[in-house]
Amino acid sequence: MAPSPGLTERISGRAARLRARLDGRGREPGVDLARGLAVIGMFAAHLLVTMPFDWTHPLTWPDLVNGRSSVLFATLAGVSLALVTGRAEPLAGQDLMFARIRIALRAACIWLLGILLILLQTPVLVILPAYAILFLLALPLLRARPTTLFVTAGAIALTMPFAVYAIDHTISREDDLTETVALALGWDYPFLLWAAFILAGIGVGRLAFSAPLTATLLVACGAFLTALGYGVIGEAALLEPADSLWGGVLSASAHSSGIGEAVGSGGVAIAVIALCALVCRTPLKTLLLPLRAVGAMPLTAYTVQLVAWAILQPPVGDHGSELAAFRALEPFWPLTLATIVGCTVWTLLAGRGPLEWAVGKVARVGPPAPSGSADAAR
Question: For the whole model, what pTM was predicted?
Fold first, then answer.
């Protein structure tokens, strides 16, 4: 039985509103898609039991999300900062001053939310405190040229693993005070090194990265960095004892903070962002609306997942740990599908995500953001 004309019109109208909210002036659909993939990838890293990655064994491919999803998330933070501060033409003068104040206020809100999520005591390394600190570290370089940003990001990726290694092997986190400070600083995502990702993201955002030629070049650059980090540098790390200075500093393993990981995962992030920009120039952009809806409200999606985890966490029992006990529930697909559906419906009916809206309210100082900056730093 065919739907009534009135029902068809209502469905068409709602679909049109959804497209307008996700395809409106100033939005970058490729960025929303990449953010959606990053959020779902972080879900997978939290909720799936993965085996060490091997190209020849598809069952190990889910391991690709480990480490790389959070790096993509941080790199996209840089892209968003570029979009909200003028895109290819950085803001200057009073406009830049107010933009910096708004970003600093957003950082404070995100840091506070991160601390609240840590207090839930879910067995997850919460990225938000580090994310907030990265926003603050990026403020002085918001007017830097893309070349300066990429060179600085590269220098950080090649040098800061030594500092992170030294700190990690000098300061013990066994006492409560040190652990509290580490959690407050998001040290599991050490900002000394992760500044490379947010600066690289600002550099990408200053380019016309959604233009086909630029996006294709970025994919090629990302692929080169991926091969360099995980291939050349990662293989060199394997020649050294894992517990040695060079074995640790050169490591390409997920969450190792090694040069191999920094270069390789940074390359993956750049390639994914550019690929998403290319995909969103095709009819697939419409089919991928639900994932883009998740990417339009990543702070809400990330937070709701951890709150749901805290509520649903079962007793440890015979599983050995809270993480193993929760994973035994096989929660990935239910939570992921619920997130995709929930974000799509919310975007259709209400627009901006609730946490994104609240943070935006707190950070609303000075004149309105410039036209074309809908992809605010979330």
Answer: 0.91
From residue 292, alpha-carbon distances to 24, 55, 92, 161, 298 in Å are 13, 28, 31, 33, 10
352 vs 26: CA distance, rounded Å: 14
Determine if residue 186 is left, alpha or beta; phi over 0 gives left, psi from -120 to 50 gives alpha, anything else beta. Answer: left
Give the model confidence (pLDDT) of 245-276 as tens digits: 999 999 999 999 999 999 999 999 999 999 99
**For residue 359, what are its two tokens?**
């943070």
Decide if 196 contacts 297 (C-beta within 8 A): no
Q: pLDDT tens for residues 36-88?
A: 999 999 999 999 988 877 777 878 888 889 999 999 999 999 999 999 999 99
Residue corresponding to tokens 């960095």: 225
Evaluate whether residue 64 is within a structural domain.
yes
Q: What are phi and psi of 116, to 5 degrees?
A: -60, -40
The span from the CA of 218 to the CA of 119, in Å, is 39
Give me the domain span that covers residue 37.
Answer: 27-362
Residue at 375 is within a domain: no
Domain count, the chain: 1
CB neighbourhood size of 296 (10 A): 30
